[in-house]
Amino acid sequence: MFEQGDGTKLGEEMVERLAKKFGIDLSAPVGDAEKTSEPRVSGVGRGFCPNPHCPTNRVYVVEGRRFLLPDIAAADPAGGRFCAMCGEVIEKACPNCGAAVHEGAICSFCGKPYVSA
Fold it and tell me: Which residue from 30, 36, 45, 114 has the highest number of Cβ atoms inside 10 Å of its Cβ?
């Protein structure tokens, strides 16, 4: 119902469950993200390797533009701190906007690639 525009059906319990699933800290004030170096939304769980030369980042081309597709499962199979292939520190949030990491090469919030080619 919420996805169809009926926000009255979204209770506090559901908001908390969704926040937990997407790694959103509800205790932090909304305006606090600009004041700290830490992102308000942190990637809880696994992340990607920011090293463009790491074998976990696969090259693909779209309309002549070269992108690197991070393989989250290969780089961070256990939700650790370092890449399983090259040892680089794992990124658990978008390096551009701080949004939680998802599968794919480009952040769905800011539209910038996770790894620079």
Answer: 114
